[in-house]
Amino acid sequence: MSTTNTAPVDGALDSGATSLLRFATAGSVDDGKSTLVGRLLHDSKSVLADQLEAVEHASRSRGKDAPDLALLTDGLRAEREQGITIDVAYRYFATPRRRFILADTPGHVQYTRNMVTGASTAELAVVLVDARNGVVEQTRRHAAVAALLRVPHVVLAVNKMDLVDYQESVFAAIAEEFTAYAGSLGVPEITAIPISALAGDNVVTPSAAMDWYGGPTVLEHLETVPVVADPSQDPARFPVQYVIRPQTAEHPDYRGYAGQIVSGVLRVGDAVTVLPSGRRSTVEGIDALGQSVDVAWAPQSVTLRLADDVDVSRGDLIVPAAAAPSTTQDVEATVCHVADRPLTVGQRVLLKHTTRTVKAIVKEIPSRLALDDLSQHPVPDGLAANDIGRIRVRTAEPLALDAYADSRRTGSFLLIDPADGTTLTAGMAGTAFAEGAAPVAEAATDDEGWDF
After folding, report:
1. Please, are residues 299 and 389 in contact by the beta-carbon 8 Å criterion?
2. Residue 306: partners with Cβ closer than 8 Å, 6 or more residues away
3. Cβ(306)–Cβ(312) under 8 Å?
4. For the chain, does the N or the C end have fewer beta carbons within 10 angstroms?
5. Which pLDDT band, with edges at 50, 70 and 90, does 434 fall under?
6. Cβ neighbours of residue 265 closer than 8 Å, sequence gap 6 or more
7. Rounded to the nearest 5 degrees, what angle is found at the Cα of 102, between the Cα atoms of 97 and 106?
8. What is the mean pLDDT of residues 372-386?
9. 10 vs 247: CA distance, rounded Å
10. Helix axes 112-119, 137-148, angle to 10 degrees
């Protein structure tokens, strides 16, 4: 594995700047995930004195001699009482080498949707395994979710090595089994690390009890894993967030399109297409932080000015004319249903893709995925909370979606309840594990304006 970080185009970023890593943790119940996160925060000096004092007090009240570092992360009262993680908790910390956003996700099967939420923006996932139990069903489920969400780096943290006498053979067997399984799902990079979160072995500092292990500690790997990619390798995608028309004496004719470049690079003079209309123009100017620039790249927030007076509004996607995605009203995707009420065929929803929201109808649910063995359950009645499956949706207006495998930003979408705005489902366009399903059925007549 190469550990060289590639700076964005034209040396635009200071190579010495501190990079940011978003990562998520996952593990079965009682694998010690909360203890690992607490140890990582404690040993990296990322815990405030009053937080540590509160943990020490709570630990003493429970009859423990040493601070229970799991209490640093289990913030909900129900979590502390049950000793489990229920909600996604985001932690922010930094070392001299890198800044981190940590999504601490639950391990229970019924909270799979929470892991999907936490891992959806992660560049790395830490999957915990109890050395005494090895790879279990929930471990395979977490590996499958990481693969499904295209998380580029996965760390297998084999915890509680102190309870198996730090045996290398135990670690090697677990690492081999997990690597084979995750590799078969398409996880591109897997790093196995033997640890004891309770004792602190190989979390921040190397373990004297495992001199047979010569790899990095968890923190060392988090600090050095490459996360800064060259944005010029991806086609540019610019969802329009807001149209700026000041119409002042100073700027009587100014028309700019504000938003965030979610991938790629845009330059003055680039030929671009506005989707879904298909109208073409040229980038006449780019404004960033109140100044005109010649080039901008993801994830910068900028304002584009086009050479032609074309109709552009919020929700439109500005892309290079030579690398424009196709538009469609028939969306096929793998989804994770996150709402308590089920998703059913014929249901009317709103589909939110980047800054664009359109009406849609769920036309078909071909299958539901069993994450423990990746088997398909054909034509279910619907998707319940935490279910992952394949769906086909027909939208009222064309959408410019990339395949999720190509872009996690422009290949993802949400289904929303039009009645109350509740998020129903998180979707990933294109194929994932399910393939070969039947084509979308013809739309039935609808008298309320939802027949597309």
Report:
1. no
2. 255, 257, 272, 281, 282, 283, 284, 312
3. yes
4. N
5. very low
6. 8, 9, 231, 232, 236, 295, 296, 297, 298
7. 155
8. 80
9. 34
10. 40
DSSP element (H, E) containing 183:
helix 168-184
Backbone φ, ψ for residue 184 (5° rounding): -70, -20
Going by pLDDT thresholds of 50, 70 and 90, the confidence category of residue 15 is very low
**Mean predicted confidence (pLDDT) in 408-424:** 94
Angle between helices 168-184 and 137-148 (to 10 degrees): 40
Measured distance CA(336)–CA(118) in Å, rounded: 13
Tell me the C-alpha distance between 231 and 265, whole Å.
6
Tokens encoding 88: 């996604």
Phi, psi of 2 (to 5 degrees): -80, 140
Q: Count CA atoms within 13 Å of residue 321 on its CB side.
A: 11
β-pair type (19-27, 98-104): parallel
pLDDT tens digits, 161-196: 999 999 999 999 999 999 999 988 888 899 999 999
Q: At 104, list the tokens.
A: 């601490």
Do 26 and 127 form a contact (C-beta atoms < 8 A)?
yes
Residue with tokens 């489990």: 84
Prediction pTM value: 0.81
What is the spatial distance between Cα 168 and Cα 176, in angstroms, rounded to a whole number?
12
What DSSP state is assigned to residue 201? B
Q: What is the DSSP letter of 96?
A: S
The residue to which tokens 């399903």 are assigned: 437
Cα-to-chain-centroid distance, residue 407: 11
- Residue 272 and residue 289 in contact, taking contact as beta carbons nearer than 8 Å: no
Neighbours of 49 (CB within 10 A): 7
Number of H helices, E strands in the chain: 7, 22
Vertex 90 angle, CA 88 and 96, to 5°: 150
Distance, CA of 339 to CA of 32 (rounded, Å): 28
Contact 106, 117 (CB under 8 A): no
